[in-house]
């Protein structure tokens, strides 16, 4: 069940579409010795709610209900509505609403056809122009331009791109910039617009000079949204717009500015994805402060969505090699108490989404197959490492709502 504090911070958001029925609970596992008995949830509350909102946006766009899309998106924005795992519902709705146009635009970009890539966005543009005071629709179109623009450039910011690809990338980002410039995110009380401004740093001439201030403005608008802090950390890496020192400075700043909400958790949120993507980020990490932040995050968000997210990062993405530095081993050791104190079920898609790395757990089953199978394999492999001694002794390891036990 989703708590009111998880989904809402200000006024109540618009109603969600009719919920997908809860899946029937799996039958109780057979009590075999030497195994781990834990419920594996294939479709979590995060999957259901995010899927419903995305599908609603896509359906409404196909019905050309653009005014209603804008109203609903603005309502989610004003309410600071988020999914159970901490993603903004306004942006999920916008993603669904633009999905058909983006799919067509990216397919054309992959063929090198600039005119065809622009065509579906021109159709969206006509709707935005008809409702020029609607920042919700402006966001839908601006995000569409950004996604198609990134398809022209590819994931490598510094790669060798053709002149045509560079021109198309900058044209799409310039179009997105013009749309966003119509509105002031603070006056509109719209974190989604502030987040879009941060995305536009991809095409800015000197993004390093702006990134921390732009993200600080965004996070001030919605300090309870983990997704924005995590995005800041990723973009402060050397592969993004920053350096390891900038990452540490940014984590300290955001941690201090969000301490009334998260305790030390803001520091941990900024570092979380960065550590999983680049082990060099451990060079500047205060590992004790980071682990304290994990404790504070789970005190603020004790649900299974957060427990699975942090367990997947510490037990799978951040699992260290035997000769790893002390800071890596200290962070990875948090997996033990996260599991024992908080984890009561496995959310397969949360583990599937965790960044992968090479190591003893990242075997073939953990890297292949559909998301549900891959996520379950990652979780059970990680838990198998944690409870290796019990399993080797032939003991059954099981969990229920009251906690873990062995027999």
TrEMBL record:
Region of interest: Disordered: 1-33
Protein name: Uncharacterized protein
Bias (Pro residues) ranges: 11-31
């Amino acid at each position: 069940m989703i708590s009111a504090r998880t989904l809402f911070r200000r006024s109540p958001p618009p109603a969600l579409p009719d919920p997908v029925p809860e899946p029937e609970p799996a039958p109780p596992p057979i009590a075999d010795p030497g195994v781990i008995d834990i419920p594996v949830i294939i479709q979590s509350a995060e999957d259901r709610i995010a899927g419903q909102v995305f599908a609603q946006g896509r359906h409404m766009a196909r019905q050309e209900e653009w005014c209603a899309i804008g109203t609903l998106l603005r309502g989610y924005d004003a309410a600071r509505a988020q999914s159970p795992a901490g993603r903004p519902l306004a942006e999920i709705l916008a993603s669904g609403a633009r999905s058909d146009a983006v799919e067509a635009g990216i397919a054309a970009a992959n063929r090198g056809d600039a005119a065809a890539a622009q065509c579906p966005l021109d159709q969206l543009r006509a709707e935005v122009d008809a409702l020029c005071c609607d920042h919700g629709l402006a966001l839908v179109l601006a995000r569409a331009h950004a996604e198609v623009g990134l398809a022209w450039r590819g994931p490598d910011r510094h790669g060798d791109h053709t002149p045509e690809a560079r021109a198309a990338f900058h044209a799409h980002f310039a179009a997105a910039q013009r749309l966003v410039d119509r509105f002031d995110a603070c006056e509109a009380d719209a974190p989604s617009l502030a987040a879009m401004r941060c995305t536009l740093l991809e095409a800015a001439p000197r993004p390093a000079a702006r990134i921390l201030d732009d993200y600080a403005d965004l996070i001030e608008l919605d300090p309870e949204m983990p997704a924005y802090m995590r995005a800041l950390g990723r973009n402060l890496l050397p592969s993004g717009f920053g350096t390891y020192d900038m990452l540490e400075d940014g984590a300290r700043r955001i941690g201090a500015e969000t301490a009334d909400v998260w305790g030390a958790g803001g520091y941990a949120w900024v570092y979380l994805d960065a550590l999983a993507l680049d082990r060099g980020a451990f060079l500047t990490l205060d590992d004790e402060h980071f682990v304290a932040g994990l404790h504070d995050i789970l005190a603020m968000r004790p649900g299974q969505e957060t427990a699975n997210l942090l367990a997947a990062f510490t037990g799978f993405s951040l699992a260290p090699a035997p000769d790893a530095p002390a800071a890596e081993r200290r962070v990875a050791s948090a997996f033990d108490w996260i599991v024992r104190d908080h984890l009561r079920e496995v959310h397969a898609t949360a583990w599937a989404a965790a960044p992968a790395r090479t190591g003893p757990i990242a075997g073939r089953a953990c890297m292949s197959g559909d998301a549900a199978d891959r996520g379950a394999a990652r979780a059970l492999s990680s838990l198998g490492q944690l409870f290796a001694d019990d399993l080797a002794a032939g003991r059954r390891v099981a969990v229920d709502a009251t906690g873990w036990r062995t027999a």
